Neuropeptide Y receptor type 2
Amino acid sequence: MQHKMSPLDLLNDTDTSPAKWDDISRYGEFFLMNNSLNLLRPTFSDDITKHLIVQITLIAAYSLIIILGLVGNTLVIYMIILYKNMRTVTNYFIANLALADLMVDTICLPFTLAYTLLDEWKFGAVLCHLVPYAQALSVHVSILTLTVIALERYRCIVFHLERRLSRRASFAIIGLTWAASAVLAGPLAIFREYRREEIPYIGLRIAVCSEKWPNSTNRDAVIYSLAMLLLQYVIPLGIISYAYVCIWAKLRNLASPSNRGDSIQRRKKTTKMLVWVVLVFALCWLPFHMFQLASDLDLILRFKEYKLLYTIFHIVAMCSTFTNPFLYGWMNKNYRNGFVMFFRCEHKPDTIHMEGSFKTRSQRGLIVNRHNDGCRPTAV
């Protein structure tokens, strides 16, 4: 749920009544400040993000997230494309997660950082609608994909369904997640406005990208926030939690002394990894969801540190875009060995064998070329 690009939206909505400006004054009074070119620029007397050290820290944090996200998620997709027995249903969904995270790292974060530091939207009307829409779209895709993964593993493990989910079916499901996400994120592209705003008491016009809901009231924003909190967080995580609790109980019952096969152990390891992925996503996004909802309800406008807190919570949420590759490398030998081979520029094998050993081209005749599914997680 990313439906305010910057705390500057507090200043830039369509309500210009005296009462509105009285509220804004709680955040920080404007004052005039001359730079080396004797130009007048607006700033906040209490805006901590204007301090040089804070700005350097924010630039470093966002840059690190972007670099780690680009490298990690690109590697995940590259490995799934390169290695034949990594092309499983679960890994297709993992690649979809990586693609959504890549979209945030490339389309959203650079513009969000610039808007936060400059307090002015310098990228035109098209990107004003596109950037918040793209970030909301990616978050919806991520949580829907995590839900689909949990339900697919629930179907396979709890009900012992050995029928494979075909590649075509998995791609169709991925397409549906993007279509549903596009609809859910639509209001952020539709109810948005790019305009030139006159800042009171300064006489300076700046470019603004802000929400513009029907009837120019905050009620619609609050309704949308509550709806997204339910659809994007509470309900999906409830479904995911139920699925993984049932899966864990089933695998624990199967892991009896007389039934400790490698398949059961692999399923337990894979399930543990996916649970960690969901937990990290939930923990990263919870503070931002709560802060955003409180902002729409006008519960935190009086805080002088509003903008800094918003930015910190946004950075924490964006950490979810690069943590997944680290979890895969830490908890899965296949991904870990593939990452190591890539960075060492070693000979690329055709197939990563189960538990991380490699089968090279000279051994191709010994490998059964088949596409595993989520019910048989041999390569996950």
Residues 4-8, 10-45, 354-374 have pLDDT under 50 and may be disordered. Residues 144 and 177 are 6 Å apart (CA to CA).
